[in-house]
Write a structure and sequence with these properties.
Helix 4 (about 80-95) packs antiparallel against helix 6 (about 145-155). The longest helix has 25 residues, at about 315-335. Strand 26 and strand 27 form a beta hairpin. The chain is about 25% helix and about 25% strand. By secondary structure, the chain is an alpha/beta fold.
């Protein structure tokens, strides 16, 4: 498909909720990579001749965009000139190509681009729109020779096409997969589908055990428990006694505190979960918890429960150094006040009698309604 080029349009303001802050949804990491990064990689793998990113000025200059679009050209559009810039780029790209794929990125896509091209040619379409489950997607394949049709399409912000066409219907099965990313539940479903092999997305990590994906620089305490399938991202830290289970995703630089349980949840990058928490069916990020079962986003004021880690490497280093400097004097003070250990007095309890009596006595549990039961994970 060297004669086909791809143009990806990025708009700001496409956020999900307060769990992702001001980050556009196509820049939210899922299993270690952003949707934008996976889209560009998919185009390069499919053999597109060129991939051009047209983004609003502030987005185009951001570091996260540059890190996500390796192998693609980034074009910065002046303020309120995104569609005009896209129209100009279409004309330039069409000089040495037969078709141009125009994508307004607001979803995760795994489409058979060869089938789309064949459908476009077989139906003699000038512009072909992609549909899934009866809903139009902001994806068009246009002939480079039909620049007026492309101009009409872009000037209407991809709402209208100049000519009628037979749309291409995505199958949305193992061969093709579309996630519209309109809700936090979609973001969670994308991670779960990838970990359960319901789509082609691969975690950006190494499979250290069947179904357990962990980045090489992640820190997982040997006393923590991971029940497949789960993902642990780069520089993430899982503390002793923590339990990660049921398709959970722990993104990069996240910290899961001592004896904290994450079940069927996503912990977004740079999020610190305190010790002893039980987080299930939720997304956690930016000091907010979005519960998917209740469809409620709750702010967390207490930093001992949920806090945010600085994305700046310098700030993280300074914070760690400050904690170390505060910790050392206390250790020295406790060391100077320590006393020699005193031998324990000999116990007068006959443990043999206690164990023998326990074998002969039957213990009845009180009949109390509403008694809590111990939760079980995996095969435990």
């Amino acid at each position: 498909m060297n004669f086909v080029k791809a143009m990806v349009l990025l708009e700001s303001g496409q956020t999900l909720s307060k769990t992702t802050g001001e980050t556009p949804k196509y820049l939210v990491e899922v299993l270690g990579k952003t949707t934008l990064q996976r889209t560009v990689e998919g185009f390069r793998k499919a053999g597109f001749g060129d991939v051009v990113i047209v983004a609003e000025k502030d987005l185009a200059s951001s570091r996260i965009i540059k890190d996500s679009v390796a192998g693609a050209e980034v074009i910065a559009a002046p303020d309120s000139q995104l569609w005009r810039t896209a129209e100009q780029q279409f004309e330039e790209m069409g000089d040495d190509a037969s078709h141009i794929l125009v994508v307004r990125l607001n979803s995760y896509l795994e489409l058979n681009w060869e089938d789309l091209l064949e459908h476009h040619r077989a139906n003699c379409n000038k512009v072909t729109r992609v549909e899934v489950d009866g809903e139009n997607l902001d994806i068009f394949l246009a002939n480079c020779s039909r620049r007026n049709d492309a101009a009409y399409l872009l000037r209407s912000a991809m709402k209208y096409s100049r000519t009628d066409c037979k749309p291409y219907v995505a199958k949305n099965n193992r061969d093709e997969y579309v996630n519209l990313l309109r809700h936090e539940a979609d973001l969670r479903k994308l991670a779960s589908d990838a970990l359960h092999h319901n789509c082609k997305m691969q975690p950006a990590a190494t499979e250290i055990r069947p179904g357990i994906w962990a980045a090489r620089d992640s820190q997982i305490d040997k006393r923590a428990r991971l029940v497949a399938p789960v993902f642990v991202g780069s520089r993430a830290r899982i503390c002793p006694g923590a339990v990660i289970t049921r398709g959970s995703s722990i993104e990069r630089h996240a910290v899961i505190g001592n004896k904290t349980v994450v079940e069927n949840g996503t912990v977004l990058p740079y999020t610190n979960l305190g010790p002893g928490l039980d987080v299930s069916h939720s997304l956690v990020g930016e000091r907010h918890i979005f519960n998917l079962q209740r469809n409620v986003c709750t702010p967390i004021q207490d930093p001992r429960l949920v806090s945010q880690i600085s994305a700046s490497a310098g700030m993280r280093t300074a914070s760690s150094l400050a904690k170390l400097l505060l910790h050392i004097p206390g250790q020295i003070w406790r060391g100077t006040r320590s006393k020699a250990p005193v031998p324990a007095a000999e116990s007068t309890v006959s443990y043999k009698e206690v164990f023998d009596s326990a074998k002969t006595q039957s213990i009845e549990m009180p009949k109390v309604s509403g008694m809590a039961v111990v939760r079980r994970y995996g095969n435990q």
